[in-house]
Amino acid sequence: LRLRSGNTDCTPVVLELSSWQLEYLPEARRAPDVAVITNLYPDHMNRYTSLQEYARAKANIFKNQTRGQALIVNSRAESVFRVLYPSKVLFDIIRFNANCTSYDLVRSLGEHNASNFAVALLASRRVIKKYAGREFSEGEIQKLLPSLSRVLPRFRQQIIYQKNGICIINDSASTSPEAAIAALQRFSGLALERKCPLFFIAGGTDKNLSYRKLGTALRVAFDLFKSHHLSFSLLLLEGGATRKIQALLSENLNIEIYKDLSAIVESAKKLARGGGIIVFSPGAASFEKFKNEFDRGEKFDVLVRKCFMV
Known about the structure:
Shape: globular
Strand order of the largest sheet: 6-7-11-8-9-10
Number of strands: 11
Radius of gyration: 21 Å
Strand content: 15-25%
């Protein structure tokens, strides 16, 4: 794709920036032509004192935008930003939600990925129209769809093993309750469709977050699988967040707590002897036992290869 700015060829640059990195963005010389905020949930509350402070860090991505630049944001985030910055003109607001695309292939990758695809499509159309002077055609979109499942980022609901009726998912990048809920919803649906058990691995370091919604989602999952005469097992890696999750669940549910990841993988292998879906989606940070979520994901991959691929 050839893009031009004035008389000069240009190459679009796409960056994913954390809220911590965005804290330094006011020092940048220019704002992004297209800023994207995919969601706004409480996170990193061990660093920020409130959702509002966290939102202010994220807002640095659009605060210096001028006319002709765009912000893509969902209605939840937009409402928070308008309260924080009532006098700020948010240029070319482009709203989205998870239902703004009807592509079945995208939906099979989870509602959150349908939403991510919608955002990527909106941003791409904006950039192509501005710099190439044309629309991103439906035909071009259709050509991209079959490749989506191959380009999902590593450790984000990544299927790493499928054999002998067992499917294993590495979602180590899940560091918040909302991320774990997204994985639980996607793969609960898949397990029920296949009529097989689900083994859900979660837990880790607390970031001063509430796990009430995840606790509710887990209780719903236990009841749902029971009503279908299928097994749902919750395997928890000990940590600050794990204690919160455990406190929200009944003692008579099928829950096991483990001191290390290797013990969890070994246990999951025994539980899944007859087949099933194993999902590793911590919903918590990793610092009590790992360098970061990527180190955690690497170690999970190694353990799966060791236990299941022998």
